[in-house]
Amino acid sequence: MRGPAARAAGARGEFQAAGAGARRRCARNEPVFDAMWNALWIFLGGGLGSLARWGVSGFVAERVGQTFPWGTLVVNVSGSFVIGLFATLTEPDGRWLAPASFRQFFMLGLCGGYTTFSSFSLQTLNLAREGEWLHAGANAVLSPALCLLAVWLGHLAARALNQT
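and the corresponding structure tokens:
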């Protein structure tokens, strides 16, 4: 059994193995309790991903130079590769069975902290795989264009605030 039901059963089994008494004590607040633990794991993953981004981009910049943002490019490309690899290996038909909480820690936390470009890339790929070519194309064009526009507008707003 390898589908979502097996994942859910495995996740419940792991939690129960930690102590059936603890499960009974928090059964009334279980959704809140689970959400808090997920948030904590995503938070920790995000911190680790951010440290990895700082380390990798700094390492690349020291070796190659800073006339072009090679460090950021390496982080974005490697993060996109890693999230694509992990998401496919751990999806319901994938080779590895991973609890949803670990997938969230890794993809939302670690990869999201390492580079949000990886999330954008995975979402665009999923749209294309589902045959949503218009949405995939719109996301591929609008996300970078609007983000560049937003960063420019933020720059202009900050310059205006600096002058007052």
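(Above: one complete record from the training split.) The first helix runs from residue 4 to 17.
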